[in-house]
Amino acid sequence: RGPKPLAVSALDYLPNGGLVCGGEFGWALWQPGPDGWAEVCGELNRPITAVAALNDRTIAVGTGNRLSATAGTFELWDTSANRKLQPYFQE
């Protein structure tokens, strides 16, 4: 038996071949390399409901909990610097 896999709620491919994946505990960006896929950056502290790749280094992330009436956010991230960009919206 191994660790329980995390639920995935959203994913998208970046134009450069990377994959951004969002789920129950956050999001992560994966890039293919000579030894397989490697996690490049991400944020693992809250549920993700949607992700979209805007270009090779910018992603849009929606956070929140689909099963409860909690406020969510819409965020833009620069994946090359692993930092949140403006604008930042919260319900």
Task: Give me some keywords for this one.
91 residues, globular, 58% strand, mainly beta, 8 strands
Summarize the structure.
By secondary structure, the chain is an all-beta fold. The protein has strands at 8-13, 19-23, 26-33, 36-43, 48-53, 58-63, 73-78, 83-90.
Detailed description of the structure:
- With 91 residues, this protein is mainly beta.
- Helices cover 0% and strands 58% of the residues.
- It is built from no helices and eight strands.
- It has strands at residues 8-13, 19-23, 26-33, 36-43, 48-53, 58-63, 73-78, 83-90.
- The protein has a four-stranded antiparallel β-sheet, with no helix packed on it. A four-stranded antiparallel β-sheet has the order 5-6-7-8, with no helix packed on it.
- The model has no long low-confidence stretch (mean pLDDT 86).
